[in-house]
């Protein structure tokens, strides 16, 4: 059996889009998010408002993304991974909407770091030097 950490992030994201295919088929806008830890996608999903209210009446939104629009969305999401540099923990959010029959996507890449892990990686004297330099400035 293949483990997630043996799959490239690109392949993992491709699997995410396959899993969300049915849900995306019913949505015309929202945000697909993937949470990444050690270059492995853990939690993922879609944030959206599937219902709209006007004049006191709640109605479902119109049609969702077609197969061609989902393919375009997936291609743009995979392309955005080329802009991820030197970080292994964080979240990527893909805000999407249909506009004039075309899917429009904005990708937001968020890197996360943990100060506790940095304290382990660097020797204590590094912090003492930084503190003395900031006091002398």
User: How large is the radius of gyration?
Assistant: 20 Å
Q: Give helix % range.
A: 25-40%
Largest sheet: 4 strands, antiparallel
The termini sit apart by 56 Å
Q: How many domains, as an integer?
A: 1
Strands side by side in the biggest sheet: 2-1-5-6
pLDDT below 50 for ≥5 consecutive residues: which ranges?
none
Content-based structural category: alpha+beta
Averaged pLDDT: 87
Order of helices and strands: HHEEEEHEEHH
GO molecular function: methyltransferase activity
Organism: Paenibacillus solani
Keywords: Methyltransferase, Transferase
Protein name: O-methyltransferase
Question: What labels describe this entry?
Answer:
single chain, 137 residues, alpha+beta, 4-stranded antiparallel β-sheet, two-stranded antiparallel sheet, 5 helices, 6 strands, 33% strand, elongated
Gist of the model:
This protein is of the alpha+beta class and 137 residues long.
Description:
Keywords: Methyltransferase, Transferase. This is O-methyltransferase. One of its GO terms (biological process) is methylation. The strands form 2 sheets. A 4-stranded antiparallel beta sheet has the order 2-1-5-6, with helices on one face. Strands 3-4 form a two-stranded antiparallel sheet. The protein has helices spanning 9-19, 21-24, 67-80, 115-121, 124-136; strands at residues 29-37, 40-47, 51-54, 57-60, 90-99, 102-111. The radius of gyration is 20 Å and the shape is elongated. The protein has 137 residues and is α+β, with helices and mostly antiparallel strands. The protein has one domain (4-50, 57-134).
């Amino acid at each position: 059996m293949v483990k997630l950490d043996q799959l490239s992030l690109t392949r993992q994201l491709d699997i995410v889009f396959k899993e969300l295919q049915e849900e995306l088929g019913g949505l015309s806008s929202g945000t697909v998010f993937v949470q990444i830890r050690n270059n492995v996608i853990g939690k993922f999903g879609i944030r959206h408002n599937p219902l709209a209210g006007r004049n006191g009446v709640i109605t479902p939104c119109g049609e969702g993304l077609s197969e061609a629009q989902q393919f375009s969305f997936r291609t743009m999401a995979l392309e955005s991974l080329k802009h991820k540099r030197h970080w292994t923990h964080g979240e990527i959010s893909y805000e999407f909407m249909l506009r004039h029959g075309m899917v429009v996507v904005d990708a937001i890449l968020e890197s996360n770091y943990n100060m506790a892990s940095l304290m382990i990686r660097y020797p204590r004297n590094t912090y003492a030097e930084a503190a003395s330099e900031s006091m002398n400035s």
